[in-house]
Amino acid sequence: MKVFVTGATGFVGSAVVPELLKAGHQVLGLARSDAAAASLTAIGAQPHRGDLEDLESLQAGAAVVDAVIHTAFIHDFANFKAVCDIEARAVEALGSALIGSDRPLIITSGTALLTPGRLATEDSTTVFTVDDFPRILTESVSRSLIERGVNLRTVRLSPSVHGDGDHGFVPNIIATARTKGRSAYVGDGANRWTAVHRLDAAVLYRLALERGSAGAHYHGVDEEGIAFRDIAEAIGKRLNVPAVAVSREEATEHFGWFAHFAQLDCPASSKQTREQLGWQPTHVRLLTELEQSARYFEALVNH
User: Which residue pairs from 239-243 have beta carbons closer than 8 angstroms and sit at least 24 positions apart in sequence?
Assistant: First the structure.
């Protein structure tokens, strides 16, 4: 198949593109710059100039392919609602170009959006409102597109998608711990995150494309629930700073905009995903990577 990939040079998308090419698919990759276009060309993909706010470019890309995989997201969490609004409009634009066809659209969401405090499954729906968690807009738009006949499948990623090139939540925790001289968790730190390696996530997107079904949700979850305290302690050990508890009131001062995410308790299962798609994660797990790999800590120095 020829597949249009948004976020093709981003952290997740740059793993998805070679996974698709290796499997024999052709890739049309969204590129915001000449450098991004050149990097796609260098690995055998075809660049398509545009960005998430250029809705015409998104629709033009979706119009000339057999499938679309949407991995792009503007990682400006200090302006989270605004970037979630941008993504919702982008998903709507991509989906509108596929109405009336059976061409798949695979979009990206998150397991943290679902059922705090209890294990989320692929059948779970969110208990949040848009005001609580703006990114649920993506799943709301997706439901509307499915009702309009779009062959849409959703990959829900873990809060930690880790591996080379990570610029998300874990690097933020590391940077804060280095700056503050302590690696913090909130309360007893028993709140749980899920995690998946970016290369395992890339395989999941390919399998969702090749074997998935319309309307399905697939969970990019290798580890169902890692205590946040364990993450903080692994980071503290590597930075040689203490891992300490902070109160909910102190969390905002310590973490800034990240305080909300540091307190999420969002365990999730990928049992159905594994059974339905035959997905089996094989790469290093998060705590092992933090304990054994220098890359997260070296990259921070040069960031």
Answer: 239/174, 239/177, 239/178, 239/183, 239/297, 241/177, 241/178, 241/181, 241/182, 241/183, 242/182, 242/183, 243/182, 243/183, 243/184, 243/185
